[in-house]
What we know:
The complex is a heterodimer of chains A (606) and B (555). Chain A is an alpha+beta fold and 606 residues long. Chain A contains nine helices and 25 strands. Chain A has helices spanning 20-25, 27-36, 59-74, 158-189, 220-232, 304-323, 338-348, 465-478, 534-539; strands spanning 13-14, 91-109, 112-132, 135-136, 147-152, 207-209, 242-258, 263-280, 286-295, 330-336, 380-384, 390-391, 394-395, 412-416, 419-420, 440-441, 449-450, 454-459, 462-463, 483-495, 505-516, 523-525, 528-531, 541-557, 560-580. In chain A, strand 12 (390-391) and strand 13 (394-395) form a beta hairpin. In chain A, helix 3 crosses helix 4 and helix 5 (220-232) runs parallel beside helix 6. Chain A is globular, with a radius of gyration of 25 Å. Chain B has two domains: 2-284, PmbA/TldD fold (2-Layer Sandwich), CATH 3.30.2290.10; 302-542, no CATH class. In chain B, the strands form five sheets. In chain B, strands 1, 2, 3, 4, 5, 6, 7 and 8 form an eight-stranded mixed β-sheet that branches. In chain B, strand 18 and strand 19 form a beta hairpin. Chain B is globular. Chain B contains ten helices and 25 strands. The chains are: A alpha+beta (606), B alpha+beta (555). The interface between A and B is large, with 74 and 69 residues.
Amino acid sequence: MFPAKKFRLPSGSLCSSGPRSAVIATFSLLALALTLAASAQHRSKVHAAARDAAPASPVLLDTMTSELQRAFTSLGKTIPNQKDADKVLPPYFISYSVSDASAVTIRVQYGALADSNTNHVRFADVQVRIGEPKLDNTHGNHRSSAVNSLQMPLSDDRAALARTLWLATNAGYGNALDNYLRVKTEAQVRAREEDSSPDFSKEPPEVSVSAPAPSIAIDRAAWEQRIKALGLVFREFPDVYQNIAMLTVQNQTDYYASSEGSRIVAPRQQARVVVFAVTRAEDGMDLFRGQTFEAETVDGLPSQPQMESAVRELGKSLEALRKAPVTEPFDGPAILSGRASAVFFHEVLGHRLEGQRQRGDEEGQTFTKELNKEVLPPFLSVSDDPTLSTFDKTWLSGTYAYDDEGQKARRVDLIQNGVLKTFLMSRLPIASFAESNGHGRSQTGRMPTGRQGNLIVTSTKTEPEADLRKQLIDEAKRQGKPYGLYFEDISSGFAVTTRSAPQAFQVIPLVVWRVYVDGRPDELVRGVSIVGTPLAAMKRIVATSDKSEVFNGECGAESGTVPVSAVAPAMLVSEIETQRQQQGTQRPPILSIPGAPSTPASKEGQ
Amino acid sequence: MNLARHLSSFLAAALLSFATISPLSASAQTPRADAEKDPVLKAMLEELNRSMTHLQLPGFEKPYFIEYRLEEVQDFETRAAFGATEGSHHNHARIARITVRVGDYKTDNSSPRGDGALQLTSIDDDPIALRSALWSGTDQAYKAALAAYAQKQAELKQVQTPPQADDFSKSKPIVSLADPLKLSVDENAWNDRVARDSGIYRSDPAVNANQHMIQYSTAAFHARVTTTWIASSEGAIVRKSSSSYSESIGLGTQAEDGMHLDRSYGTSGISLPDLDSPEEFHKHAVTLISSLSDLRQAPIVEEEYHGPVLLSADASADTLHSLLASGITATRPKLGTEARTNGPFASSYKARIMPDFLSVVDDPALKTWEGKYLVGSYSVDDEAVPAQTVQLVSDGHLQNYLIGRTPVRDFPESNGHARAGVTGPARPVIGVLKVTAQQGLSDDELNTRLIQLAKDRGLKSVYYVETLGTEATPRLLYRVDLDGKRTLVRGAVLDDLDQRALRSGVVAAGKNLWVANYATEIPETVLAPALLFDDVTVKRANETNDKLPYYPPPE
């Protein structure tokens, strides 16, 4: 449903991982793929705030502009040396989008270095549209065929750059022509579509040339030691069976030119530490936890002691989870922590507010007809604001200055006081909205669609966390339940929004506590799985805390993996239904992990 | 998409090659103490011993055999297109393949799918991290082996005919410690060199007049060093190291009728000096680019032809590789059958498979041929068995198979041909396959024979294949008239070049052997003479002639 890039670590990513057992099963091979796939580097495209004054126009942008102009004016003209001198269809729109991405990756496994690498690649996405905005080659399920990608030379060699763009444009034009002819035929034989909006919105061109991102300047050897030290923490936890610690630093510059006259250069930087660990309970249940730290550059990451202490908490929590009792089916009140709420809103609400989901025969269109109606309790509002780069001093990874269709990023008030106001729009119009609102995003090689950036949930009915907890106990008592649930950490699930599948969401609760009404201490349980329908679950929010938490992650969907953030306060839900998750049946390892105190000595080794 | 097709065909042709450095720096008597000075081997042996001693699920069998094969791969690759670099890439990884067998040599858990577990391990020599990865893989492989063993027992009860051979052969454990090689290349110089290579079409005055017709031009350099450590519970301890270097270029265009025309050239070896000098490489590239112009002008081959075809030694090597290499390896046949092995020669033991003037030997010990390094050469295989020279075909008759430690009927022991790509299971593969002819002819004599055959049959012309691309598609094919005149033709594919043609259709062979080094994950070499076939089909390939570019390339 939401194809995720295979090499993406499940932890810290939203909506991109499958059921938990599959995550675990693919874990080690996934790590292997990380190293072996030569081109498996991060290629997601995002733009960020421009900082410096515009410098001289870079050779790359100039070459893109002139070659685009040449293609736009040449294509569709009669070619003298062609035998069939019939005039072919001219494109009405061409865009070139080039990502120039440098990356440093350091990966540590079991506390020792498994990979340390640098990378610098340029990729061009060429988009060609034939026909007219009302009906073009991207119509319906032909949408993805409008993008052609090719690797680009890294140097400022105009001839080589132009030649590569020509090669990609020529292939792209051929593809577009083929799809346009099929679209025309299909339009003639099909019944009238529910939503007869055009295929491409009209937008003014944007010109913004910022300085490219600087090259990555980090002390690799020092960071290798720091990441190893994070991995070594797990040696204190012999029941943690697999662990990975990883740093990725990316400095990227996106260049965009279109036949409408847009010329954009937008830099972006990101540093990210991911720690991921796995254990297995005696009954075969696989358990995992992840922890991520994000900042614009490595200098903004937490201090080494702070990170090590977070990793230590992760190790403790996994060992505690191993021994925790398995959950029972439950239907009652619960608190979602701020972090858990953020993931919940991203999955349950955010994905359903993507513009393209309101159009098309296969989409569920949960919210299509809910515009200007109350979809949340009136004390809640939701916006998506990619122009914010921090929230309460925490860097937001969903920030960008221009989207992947060259549209300026802007804050969009999706839900105001519980009432649905608009959708996340790319340049694909829908019946209710004809224009983009700067949320057309994609990873390199994919067609942009409406996506989230920084999803921010705000509340006017807030209480201190302690009061919220007291209210949970009261609510449980009122419902005659022995306990309520506290969801401390939730991992990615996937949102199903198409018509052929039930309108359900799945997020994976990782850390869940029973909060007893009789004053017993809270009890950790494992194997909790949430069931239910999204709208119902959200309408049962009765109060929120007065503190918001940030979840930074990566989100996979049809248009690929893009960095996102979600910000939300903790929430009290009057009723949530949970069941016991499916689990594996493999026993835990037979021998203890090497280095563990109980390891049988190897008598032969001498 | 055309583009993808072109690029992939180029990649397939871009020869990456490998070679094994073989000096056994220690005799079979190397004490285990030497091995334990190597931190990787020490960690492997410790975890191996711990597992053999303690690994057992209550109520189930212990493993009877465990093997760790750990590979360290270091790559440097740089690519360029149209005269500019696209960037370079490093890879440094260690991967362990863990094999656990339960049961006994006669019947165990092994299956044709390959067994065991893979683990990424650390590139640091950290003993706990190395052992942790092995521990995790061993646990996984042992549990999988128990399940597979139970399944095997059930499958055995389903068939009347018992297996024709044991599941695993015994092998005398060896200790062999070669020094690890190091990857050392001047990266900036190679970035520049491949950038220049990919721009020859526009920089060299001999060819740049036609630069507008070139649709793609790419070049690459790839260096790889692989070090392999093997330790088994039988006591085998092996450390071996190999390296490979290759430089390649690929270009393509379309003829006026839309036919795709592609050429590529590569030079490879086990060390940098084995590669062409920059001047030599440039010369080859220019020849290649000129040949594209020639091909654009060349007439299309006739619709269908049956008759004599002379394959150059280069084209013969490719043909013999595809007809022989997979057939002369012995692999376990399907359970319940009486078959000896699989493939086209499964029932050909002692039978004639070639004319009686041809013989075939696989000799992994052969390191060079006429000064050229043979990438298929190696001394210890990937099951820690020393490589043996195997006489496969004598006077046209199949005498032997290449085999690893999976026995087949009449072949109870390994002859040291179980080879593996990185992360892959070991399976029998050729090393240096040498095909020779008694009383081989010179090139002139072969040409004379070819034309004589044409005259005897009353044909006006016959064909000569200079180089083959993939799937029996000639890259350079000439029509040869009775007066010996050669005309380059395009758009052909060969047919009926099969095992039967090999058995009874070869009328003569050359005396000079061509060295074909194959750059697959498991490096292979074929040495072959030119072959004159009596009756081969040459016909039009009739591939899709795609549209010519919709607009001209930039100036």
